[in-house]
Amino acid sequence: MLLAPRPWESGRRSAAVQTLRVGHTNGSVETSPYRSQPLPLTHSPFLFSWVPDSSQPFQWDWNDVASGVRRWALIGCLGTWIGGNPASAEVSSREVAFFRPPALAQIQISPSGKNVAALTTTPDGWTVWTPRSSPTVTPLPPAATIPGGFGRFAWIGDNQALLTSRSEAPWELKSLPFAESTTRTLTPAIGVHWVRPVVTPLDSAVLIEGYRHDTRGRPLGRWLDVWKVPVGGGPQEQVARNPGDIVEWKVDARGRVQAGLALRGTTQELRLAPTAEEPSGRTVFTFDGIRDPAQLLTVSEDGGSLWFAARMGRDTRGVYEFDLQAARVRRACWTDPDFDFDGRAWVVGSTLVGLTVERERPEWIPMNPRWSVMRGLPGVPISLAAEGEYAVLHDRTPPERWVGTTLPPNPQLPFGTLLNSPGAPSDLPLPEVRQWTARDGLSLRGYLTLPRTTEGTRPPLVMLVHGGPWTRDFWCWSPEAQFLASRGWAVAQVNYRGSAGFGWAFQEAGAGQWNRAAQDLIDVARGLAESGQVDGQRQVITGASFGGYLSALALTQKSQPFRAAASLGGVFDLAKWWRSTRDREPDFVRQVQRAWLFGSGRLESPQMKIVAQSNSVPLWVGHSQDDALVPIQQSEQFVAALRKAGRSVDWVSWPDGGHTLGTPEQQAERWDQVERFLSKSVGR
Fold first, then answer.
1. If both were cysteines, with which of 240, 298, 435, 651 could 226 make a disulfide (CB 3.0 to 4.6 Å apart)?
2. In this predicted structure, what is the pLDDT of residue 143?
3. How far is Cα 57 from Cα 53, in angstroms, rounded to an integer?
4. Residues in Cβ contact with 448 at an 8 Å cutoff, skipping those fewer than 6 apart
């Protein structure tokens, strides 16, 4: 049950080469002699099913926990492995392009708005864009490399990049002055095993969080201290020492630690920064870490306010402003009765100017009249600079693009379109926002992508089930949906009960009640057939990880309409999977897993394990042998039980690819296998 970063934040999939592209908003060009190796996201600090290595203790990013894991999407949004076999001859280059990464990721404007740079997966070149011309590609000079690749990019002033590297050795933080040909390592004296840059406008130093180590380089604990690291070299200064239970720090724009989020059992504690009198920090607010995990968003420049997301007694998660001096909640900034907050708070100086939120589609919610003009622009902001004078926006309408502009918008001086997804066709069908009603009256939200078909014909339907289950389907690029639609399928993506993002009651309704979630999928399929939008005699279902579990579970329900099902890296015995996490995840994470998967029910209740004899239609099962998150034994044992019961099953195992199915070529080939099986099952 790997949870990966949302595709519009990190780029959908990693590629063989990452470089840094830099452009100037005044039209001039500066080259950067930099090129890196691919980032192995298999070692990233994902929340629930982290892939450990022998050199690194467990660590998770508390923002992931605090957002109820809604900020992380399952397989189908990110792949991370490089290498493997090319796609089969049956898969066209156009179809492989659906799964390729965008050319740019993490586009950022420098603090003054002078320069624009981004991580890139395009080898041997960098993109330069000017206010009045199209982007051009310039060859890179000999590159300085970072072993293991890098994962985060940020600005230090206007002329240096801050890069977090990853290797089998301790993590490193490096700076890249654009006028030089090599990077500078900023963290050797600390010897941290994991770093999280706390980026501030400081030109001379950056703040980082990292583990303490002994003289032999071994970590002394899992908790993080805060260090001030001079960019030009010199001794590092410990700014805040962790009392032992802080899982996240918040720092203002002047580089001062203002608050921390601590974990005590299943309770979160918001604490003020530690002092000599109170070395653990004073607790000023608490949250239920299971039912109402808080997410700390940002701190004002003057250190007076902190914004966080939480439920605060409501069903849905909203955004609240906390007065750090008075130690009290000042006001509710944004709430919605139907949607949890899932996005970002944008603060300019000490003023909250707007929020990006996820409802049916991504939206910009202005908190200041000056910022209302952004509602008319394509996409939502991913980078602001120079007191809000410049912005880069991400438009996720397929094919996605990044757009730069001045604020307020100046049609005579736009940055223009920075990127269209490489190789993605421009005639893609757009996903339609839909709302359905389950048999018990529960409202369900999701998306329907209809293929380009002859007028009057009814396409076959594939129910594409998201994993998690504590994530949701978003309005975003879905390579799987576009791949299937390109082959003539209508694709339904349903946020079944138990999905996150629609309030605690909706999420809790699925925990331990997954038969009802499977019935949600059946109800939507029936409704689409009854409306005449799809062919009711040609309906199938597929999903990966937990989506594979629900696909198989749907086949055990009475009067289900699906003619076939396919599972990729699926879970078939939830209790067995949960028990397998005992040695690799801390107790709190296991308690969250148990509550969100099983509710108050028993681990061994019948619906927690798929009964092979109950599956009455053809089933296709595929699994990577090197899947570290859902072991291949889950599929092998289920397939053996199916065959023993005399049920029809096609079984495929792949030597590599992990939980996310590998390279774009591998993913296209494996989804090609799924689509061909489903087509054969409905007589196409």
1. 240
2. 38
3. 8
4. 431, 432, 434, 490, 491, 492, 493, 528, 533
